[in-house]
Amino acid sequence: MSQWEVVIGIETHVQLATASKIFSGAATAFGAAPNTQAAPVDLALPGVLPVLNKRAVECAIRFGLAVGAKVAERSVFARKNYFYPDLPKGYQISQFELPVVQGGQIHISVGQGDKAYEKPVRLTRAHLEEDAGKSLHEDFHGKTGIDLNRAGTPLLEIVTEPDMRSADEAVAYARALHALVRWIGICDGNMQEGSFRCDANVSVHRPGTPFGTRREIKNLNSFRFLKEAIEYEIRWQIETLEEGGTIEQATVLFDPASGTTRAMRSKEDAHDYRYFPDPDLLPLVISSEWIERTRAELPELPEAKKQRFMADYGLSAYDATTLTASLEMADYFEAAVAAAGKDQAKLCANWVMVDLAARLNKAGLEIAQAPVSAVQLGGVVARIADGTISNAIAKKVFEALWVGEGASADEIIERQGLKQITDSGAIERLVDEVLAANPANVAEFKAGKEKAFNALVGQVMKAAKGKANPQQVNALLRQKLQAPA
User: Which residue ranges form the domains of the chain, and what is each CATH number?
Assistant: First the structure.
């Protein structure tokens, strides 16, 4: 692999969060019976004219501003001509020479620990277009059915420069983009329903030589499939070239079952589509006032929030990146910090990223559905910080909150008698009892076996029903064990 450089660019089709289609009033809701959400415009019936959806344009403006791109004050819709059964008009309305969003970049974080690094991925463009319909090949006795419900669904196609050099970078970019479009409210990000679909352009070449011939992997609708498809394609291209073969430009599909890609058709270039301006649509003109009004409506963006979390709360880049993976998680974290106190930000971060995340994952819930509110979690952290409960007891309190046994950490601690024992006299009595009852462990510790100390700590905590302050137990136990006979 060190003899080859990988070059990856990604085209992403983002379904925009509109109630109706980009050029008609038909609904965009997912799951309707086939062909029940297709208006005359979507069906390409004679005499109909497209009318542009203003909300789709607003989504494009929001995205352009969020990635620091130029939002074109004048852009043009074109007809992209090709023939396919689920494309009734024989062309797709898209943008070509003058897209609505030009340039911009997305920052990605790759890897963890010492191997972690960040880099920007440049965007070439983002343009508005309509989706095609869908061909259904199952349960038709060897025939194909056509569902035109998706025809005319508004898309923003986001195209990168060939800046990525590994499957990990490609996945990091896709995750960052996915988080961003959800963050700014222009897409629900549901990959299973096709709201966010990636096409990966992959090529390899030896360092110092021109870029190789690219192959485009179409319609990848999960981050795992994106990684697996790119990794297979890289291996296949390198093996082909090292065996003396050549790479032909092509569109390929990824088969998750076999983990392989297979050629679908030779790859088209722009001239194959015979683009020309759509005569039924006037140029799209976006005023500077509209752009500035949209800018004022944007929330604090992920990268800015990440930098603020690092500066204000002293978090590492990794923690800040994780906590800004979604707007919901970032808001939850800040609300927990507000309840626990700013000086407990790191402890709040740990609870959100580890304990809460694990419980959500086990239950199959999103953070917005968490039974434990951010204020409740902040209350748990506050009681750990002031010594009322230990970390071990805090997990019991958290679980009680999760199943609805109380409205707050304080209520559960009081009702269940979970307050930590910090009285040094009480702890000393427990330590003395354990030392007297476990002479074998005492002898092992004095013989240099550190594990015996942990066993004694466990016995003290068991005697205290988990409520003794662990730091006090450790200090007092070690003091007595190391005291001269």
Answer: 5-290 (no CATH), 300-415 (no CATH), 424-482 (1.10.10.410)
Residues 6+ apart with CB under 8 A from 355: 395, 398
CA distance 112 to 109: 9
Please give the chain's pLDDT, 485 residues, in tens: 679 999 999 999 999 999 999 999 999 999 999 999 999 999 999 999 999 999 999 999 999 999 999 999 999 999 999 888 889 999 999 999 999 999 999 999 898 777 889 999 999 999 999 999 998 877 667 788 899 999 999 999 999 999 999 999 999 999 999 999 999 999 999 999 999 999 999 999 999 999 999 999 999 999 999 999 999 999 999 999 999 999 999 999 999 999 999 988 776 666 688 999 999 999 999 999 999 999 999 999 999 999 999 999 999 988 998 999 999 999 999 999 999 999 999 999 999 999 999 999 999 999 999 999 999 999 999 999 988 888 888 999 999 999 998 899 999 998 887 776 665 676 777 777 777 788 777 777 776 677 777 788 777 777 776 767 677 777 777 777 777 66
With beta carbons less than 8 A apart as the criterion, state whether 227 and 171 touch.
yes
Task: Tell me the three state secondary structure of residue 77.
Answer: strand
Query: Can you read off the two tokens belonging to residue 305?
Result: 């929030």
Q: E strands along 96-140, which residues? A: 101-102, 105-110, 117-130, 134-136
The one-letter amino acid code at 363 reads A
Helices (H), 275-326: 288-297, 302-313, 317-323
Q: Can you state the percent helix, strand and coil of the chain, rounding each to 5?
A: 45, 20, 35
DSSP summary character for residue 352: I
- Prediction pTM value: 0.83
Please spell the DSSP secondary structure of 382-419, one letter per residue.
Answer: HHHHTTSS-HHHHHHHHHHHHTTS-SSHHHHHHHHT-P
CB atoms within 10 A of CB 92: 20
CA-wise closest residue to 335 among 304, 380, 378, 368: 378
